[in-house]
Design a protein that fits this description.
CATH topology of the largest domain in chain B: Alpha-Beta Plaits
CATH superfamily of the largest domain in chain B: Peptidase S8 propeptide/proteinase inhibitor I9
Number of domains of chain B: 3
Order of helices and strands of chain A: HHHHHHHHH
Largest sheet of chain B: 4 strands, antiparallel
Strand content of chain A: under 5%
Number of domains of chain A: 2
CATH architecture of the largest domain in chain A: Orthogonal Bundle
CATH superfamily of the largest domain in chain A: RNA polymerase sigma factor, region 2, helix turn helix motif
Shape of chain B: elongated
Helix content of chain A: over 70%
Oligomer: heterodimer
Number of helices of chain B: 8
CATH architecture of the largest domain in chain B: 2-Layer Sandwich
Strand content of chain B: 5-15%
Structural class of chain A: mainly alpha
Shape of chain A: elongated
Radius of gyration of chain A: 18 Å
Chain lengths: 183, 206
């Protein structure tokens, strides 16, 4: 997909409409899920999706191939999503005060094996901070390296690893709580 | 267990870890079997995150929207296309103006000619045949069982012709060019054909 995306991007840079349509079809679904996971509003997610691909159309000829096409694309979407958030309300990413929970309790795993696990995971993902959810989404949905994620969210690689660690711990804590409620 | 290893585990689970870091994690797992439990949790979590259902993406509708936006963008950035579009818009406006003018002209013509048709000559929709409604016009109703042939003979005999009707009440207007009184008497005399004859002398004028 990466080479295919790169070839299409070159054609888009030359103003090829058909290549743009193919590029859209190649990434649209994945990108929409990523945006929606951050906004939780399908109308806004559709707007951001449109703006992201429009940006691809405008900037395709400036792509230098220093990162994967998907990393570049998700980076545009991430920036636009954050920009939308900033316009609505100031975002605070307070990582220092995030409670670190290392609990060996098996409740979190039990929750992931329960019949209602889909609902529990959905709920817990929604409780994550924006920055943590984005990293988890890119790690586990897009299977990106932490280096790629760092480019997408425009932060140091160490921050990505820390955010992912915190996101995992928060999910664990939340899932344990869900099991506690259920029992 | 060092935090560094824990921070690398999610990327070991998603298969993106390579080289020294991958080796480091694998060695840590060998040395500390308790990490297996953490990896199992992360694998299950990744699987559940991937299984999350999202609303359908905009799909082809989104593509149409994008293509429209790109077309507008092209237009905005291309002075020649912009000029052509302006000319096209102006031409469209010219056609619209011509169409509006034609409609107004047609309306005016209808307003002017329709009363004229009502007052004197009547043109059938089927052709340009003109009926002269000269003379007096009387209202008649025919007997329900009157035959067309008999009516035709009577009207020809008195030199009358149907110029309008029937109305909703079954009234026909007959044009009688001369000998009005005598003709009305003749019509009334044929009670088997003519039910009523009505002539308003005051309305008709001199």
């Amino acid at each position: 997909m990466s080479q295919e995306g790169l070839d299409l991007l070159k054609k888009i840079g030359d103003g090829d409409d058909k290549a743009m349509a193919e590029f859209y079809r190649l990434y649209e679904n994945r990108l929409y899920k990523f945006i929606l996971s951050k906004l939780n509003d399908s109308f806004e997610a559709s707007d951001i999706l449109n703006e992201t691909f429009l940006e691809v159309w405008r900037k395709a000829d400036t792509f230098e191939g220093r990162s994967k096409v998907s990393t570049w694309l998700f980076g545009i979407a991430y920036y636009k999503t954050m920009d939308r958030h900033r316009k609505k309300k100031p975002m605070l990413i307070d990582e220092d005060n995030f409670p670190e929970i290392v609990d060996e309790s098996p409740d979190a795993m039990a929750c992931l094996l329960s019949d209602e696990r889909g609902g529990h995971v959905k709920h817990c993902l929604e409780t994550l901070k924006e920055a943590h959810r984005a990293v988890m989404q890119l790690s586990f949905f897009e299977d990106m390296t932490y280096g790629e994620i760092a480019k997408v969210v425009d932060c140091p690689e160490g921050t990505v690893k820390t955010r992912m660690f915190h996101a995992k711990e928060a999910m664990k804590h939340c899932l344990q709580g869900r099991m506690g409620e259920a029992s | 267990m060092s935090k560094d290893i824990h921070e690398l585990l999610p990327f070991y689970v998603n298969g993106s870890l390579e080289g020294k870091e991958k080796t480091l994690v694998e060695k840590a797992i060998q040395d500390n079997p308790s990490l297996e439990k953490e990896i199992k949790f992360l694998k299950q979590l990744r699987s559940e995150v991937q299984a999350q259902e999202f609303e359908n993406s905009p799909g082809e509708l989104g593509l149409k929207r994008l293509q429209k936006a790109i077309a507008e963008e092209k237009l905005k950035n291309d002075p020649i296309a912009r000029a052509e579009s302006k000319i096209s818009r102006e031409q469209n406006w010219g056609w619209r103006a011509a169409a509006i003018a034609a409609c107004l002209l047609l309306m005016l013509q209808t307003i002017v000619t329709f009363p004229m048709l009502q007052n004197s000559d009547l043109t059938a929709a089927s052709g340009p045949q003109i009926f002269h409604a000269d003379g007096r016009v009387v209202n008649v109703t025919f007997a329900p069982d009157a035959q067309e042939e008999n009516i035709r003979n009577l009207l020809l005999a008195v030199d009358a012709s149907i110029v309008d009707g029937p109305s909703a009440l079954g009234i026909y207007k007959l044009s009688i060019p001369k000998n009005l009184d005598a003709t009305i008497e003749k019509l009334r005399a044929h009670k088997n054909l003519i039910e009523s004859v009505d002539y308003d002398a005051q309305k008709a004028g001199p």
